[in-house]
Amino acid sequence: MSTDATDQPQPMDIVLISTADWDNPFWTNKQHVAVQLAKLGHRVFYIESQGLRAPTATGRDLSRIVKRLKRGMRPPRQVRDNIWVWSPIVIPFQGSAAIRRINRQLLRAGLRLWTSRLKHRRELIWTYSPLTTRFYDLEAPKGVVYHAVDAIDAQPGMPAATIREAEAELAGHADLVFTTAHEIQARLSRLNPNTHYFSNVADWDHFSQARLPGPALPEDLAAIPAPRIIFVGAISAYKLDTALVARLAELEPGWSFVLIGDVGEGDPRTSVPELYERPNIHLIGPRAYDRLPQYLAGAAAAIIPAVHNKYTVSMFPMKFFEYLAAGVPVIATKLPALRDYAHVAAFSDEAEGFRDRLAEAIAGDAPPLEQRLAAAKEQTYETRTRKMMALVKKLRPGTGRG
Predict the structure, then answer these.
(1) Long-range CB pairs of 243-247, under 8 A, 24+ apart, other chains included
(2) Which residues contact 269 (CB under 8 A, 6 or more apart)?
């Protein structure tokens, strides 16, 4: 598909309904797409997470609630050219119909108020939240886009039945549906014929910096003995196979396993004593997005040791192409979304097999670097967003709605 300037719609005002806060250290589709839309000249009103998961009594969730209350008392803040971020105040118990009705009033009134003050016309709605129809009016002159990137109903603490029902309603209502995994594509295309598959991608320019001559490795990473096996992302039980990581560390005590991320991100009840017990596993916490290429520059290999469950069967890990763009060999468990990439990565679900693939990568026996980089360079946010917006340009609002 051609993606030159003539395929792109004229700049418009877009409401982007996210399920992630703007300043989360691990950016996802939501922030990256907002940035690309803004670069194309569109004005983006970015709505932060509306609290789909019920909070727990953990310090992490309590701190987040306090932070959200403080931000919710302020007007939207401009974070970049053409991007304004709104932190709405909502009651985070979406399993209750009564609570959802209250939140609907709060969100509808807040959206009208702030977009009016910003003279934002709300021409296109681009949403990641399956509960969108329960919270917002979806009348937009240029159409409604549902970008389905996860099986949110399978995440811990979510009102699963409510989400499934609302997502079906949203998919049928949307003018255009984008999906990032084959399982999601198969499910939603039955509800909306205007459903298109686009895999997750990477910020090529950012992560390719890992291969450039630059400053020395970060001090905390340099202090960890090589070879270093790096994982970047949420250290949560519903995503990460912690038993596999612990077993790998046991099998190869001379290797260092460096986990960069928050323990319990997305699931505060996560407990990982098996990771703390191994001296060659280093949980160093999250690092700023801007610094991740510096850390990957010190990796002998990068891993995606995902568990197999209802959530991950619909997951295309964003870190896959980020690792490849950094030039680092990738070893992962056999996720369905990655089945087409055996030519650029290695896969195993068993500890011994995973260890063997890592040993090969460390010894230099990985798919050719040029091949890995070529795969990553084809999958960028800029290219994908242009292809998506070319489809938006063709919309006749209302044609995809049930």
Answers:
(1) 243/274, 244/305, 244/333, 244/351, 244/354, 245/275, 245/281, 245/303, 245/305, 246/274, 246/275, 246/277, 246/278, 246/281, 247/351
(2) 56, 58, 156, 237
The H or E element containing residue 183 is: helix 182-189
* E strand spans, 8-116: 13-17, 43-47, 77-80, 83-86
Q: Which has the closest alpha carbon to 306: 244, 351, 250?
A: 244
C-alpha radius of gyration, the chain, whole number: 21
Q: What is the mean pLDDT of the chain?
A: 90
Confidence label for 59 from pLDDT (cuts 50, 70 and 90): low
Q: Name the DSSP letter for residue 313.
A: G
CB 290 within 8 A of CB 322: no
Cα–Cα distance for residue pair 332/347, rounded to 1 Å: 5
pTM of the complete model: 0.84
Helix (H) or strand (E) holding 247: helix 242-251
Banded model confidence at residue 1, pLDDT cuts 50, 70, 90: very low
234, two tokens: 């949420």
CA dist 8 and 10 (Å) reads 7
At residue 58, what are phi and psi to the nearest 5 degrees?
Answer: -85, 160
Q: How does pLDDT run across 226-279, given as a tens digit for each residue?
A: 999 999 999 999 999 999 999 999 999 999 999 999 998 777 778 899 999 999
Please answer whether residues 231 and 261 qualify as being in contact, where contact means their C-beta atoms are separated by less than 8 angstroms: yes
What is the reported pLDDT for 100?
78
Kind plus residue range of the DSSP H or E element containing 346? strand 346-347
* Nearest one of 240, 289, 288 to 263, comparing CA atoms: 240
Question: Which DSSP helix (H) or strand (E) runs through 61?
Answer: helix 59-72
